[in-house]
Amino acid sequence: MAEKVALSVTLMGETANNVAMETKIMPRKPRKPSKSAFLPSDLQLGRAVEWPTTPDAAKLDRVPNPQGDTDYVVRFTAPEFTSLCPVTGQPDFAHLVIDYVPGQWLLESKSLKLYVASFRNHGAFHEDCTVAIGKRISAEIKPKWLRIGGYWYPRGGIPIDVFWQTGKLPKGMWIPDQGVAPYRGRG
């Protein structure tokens, strides 16, 4: 039998003087999910895998979109993306924002994390990294629409922002701002 842990939950509608609390008992270990017949058996999710050493060696996984009859936006943010300058070998840093409207497939997030990390020792210009990531994701999941914004931190005093998109945005979709402020320096 699994150990039980008490979890305090604050209920909605509390007031400053009258705080309502309820205690729920939850198992210490999460329930093991059943293997679903519709998930590919070779997913990296749920098992230990080697960290890829290059972007080409990294594997992107996709899973079926359970809401395939609905248009919606998925956003991934990688605020600490790193790669290397192909000329000097010095590190470059970026904040990446990836938005897409899925079609039949969703991008599995662990595989994206491993793919993004594979750039850590990869030498490429900002533009190449940003566009290559967008193209690779698009080729794997075939979204209805995808955009990537690469907001690169300055080196040599010049910040570079790179944007790429593909596909046709479904009519009536609300696309939020990517939320990354333009670089202002000390001003």
Tag the structure with descriptive keywords:
187 residues; mainly beta; four-stranded antiparallel beta sheet; 2 helices; 8 strands; 34% strand
Draw up the topology in text:
Blueprint: E1 4-10, E2 21-27, E3 62-64, E4 74-84, E5 91-101, E6 105-107, H1 109-117, H2 126-141, E7 145-155, E8 158-167
For the record, the CATH class of the domain at 62-167 is Alpha Beta
Helix-strand sequence: EEEEEEHHEE
Terminus-to-terminus distance: 60 Å
Radius of gyration: 21 Å
Helix content: 10-25%
The parts where pLDDT drops under 50 for at least 5 residues are 1-24
Structural shape: globular
- Helix count, DSSP H or I runs of 4 or more residues: 2
Can you list the strand order of the major beta sheet? 4-5-7-8
Q: What structural class is derived from the secondary structure elements?
A: mainly beta
Instruction: Provide the CATH superfamily of the domain at 62-167.
Output: GTP cyclohydrolase I, C-terminal domain/NADPH-dependent 7-cyano-7-deazaguanine reductase, N-terminal domain
Q: Major sheet, described briefly?
A: 4 strands, antiparallel
In terms of DSSP E residues, the strand content is: 25-35%
- Which CATH-level-2 architecture of the domain at 62-167? 2-Layer Sandwich
Q: Please give the number of β-strands.
A: 8
Could you name the CATH topology of the domain at 62-167? GTP Cyclohydrolase I, domain 2
